[in-house]
Amino acid sequence: MFYRKAMDELQEWKDLSKGRSAVLIEGARRVGKSTLAEEFAKSAYKSHILIDFSKQNRDVEDIFTQNSNDFDRLSSLLSTYFDTRLYPRESLLVFDEVQMFPFARQMVKHLVADGRYDIVETGSLISLKQNVRDIVIPSEERTLELYPLDFEEFCLAQGSELLTNAIKEAFVKLQPLPNALHRKAQRLWREYLLVGGMPGVVDAYLPNLDFHEADSMKRDILSLYRKDISKFTLGEESQVSTIFDAIAAQLSKHNKKFTFSTLGENMRWRNLEAAFFWLTDSRIVNLCHNVTDPTVGLSLSADPAVFKCFLGDTGLLVAQVFSDQKTTPNELYKEILFKKIGFNEGMLVENLVAQSLRANGHKLFFFSKNDRDSSKNTMEVDFLITGKSNKSARTKIHPIEVKSTSRYSTTSLDKFAAKFGKRVGTSYVLHPGQLKVTDTRIHLPLYMAFCL
Question: When you count CB atoms within 10 A of the terminal residue's CB, does the N or C end of the chain come out lower?
Fold first, then answer.
């Protein structure tokens, strides 16, 4: 298994909770939830039982339903059935794909109260929300969101731990990497841009650094998502499918804002709200909303009907871009990797920055204003995040511009800082070049996006 930062979060939960809560690992399909839970069980407990409710037969379900009020007997039967000795406070029960057996999820409340074993659940959001109508959701259930591998995790999977440590140190000290390390980091980042962070895809790519093998796995995941759309969207199938297939085209536009009218003559936000909610809730997409009055509470002025729609994993977006072909050959990927052919990389780069910010816990917002009467009020800032400012201890807005080429201007950042003044903290430019600090902003290499 690849190193996942979420493993540290699970260990922190175990140390702090001490059996007083369960944890539910949420995330998109094929993002590695089951593998994470099993590896955590092996490394952190004396013993564990993993119950995959997508595969178990009726006998296992009967053990739960017939012994829901007798935890001594429930424990004994599970231990015997799975031939695993359980130890109070030293064993973990993993309810994998718990959405397939909602009764087990309802029992979490009582198992936590019993206190003898820790409980970890995993489930795909696309079906979790549809299988809770007749059960009581346990209030003792904490959630952990799992995302695709970020750039640091991708580098670690390739054995480049020292490089990621150097990148993080350079970010903290605001000192550029030596040129040799900078070039190596750039090369790895471009690989990550094309491969993405879905664990199965990375696993297919790494043995021979074969983009074609990775592409085949990505297409399988996209096919799985389309099947899920057909199965779980409850009357919204046509709209969800149309949106899903339009993501690449929408991001290829200059401003990347989603235009409803391109989907059909009468398409409006009110007609599509449920479809976008499903795609967001399943973690297939990340929506980035426009804010009309930027303050540290960015969501207060977020416009629900004006947004960019990013795919949850950039590697999948690459496969979607080339979906008009049956397969994408390794040679084409390498031509893009080494910039030998012209290609709209801007959409991929911005999607990857969105993916990185989301994995770091940031909700996604941007600022866009078109004022026909005043050019100084017309601006487009790619992302806004909040946090402590380098120059003061106060929380401020940090605008981020993403540049995919070395020739660019920062006019919108200048206008944004002038208009919103003291609300604005550090301004960032993510670009293909080296780290540099000026009086007004910090220019970071694109590979440092995971540090923000």
Answer: N
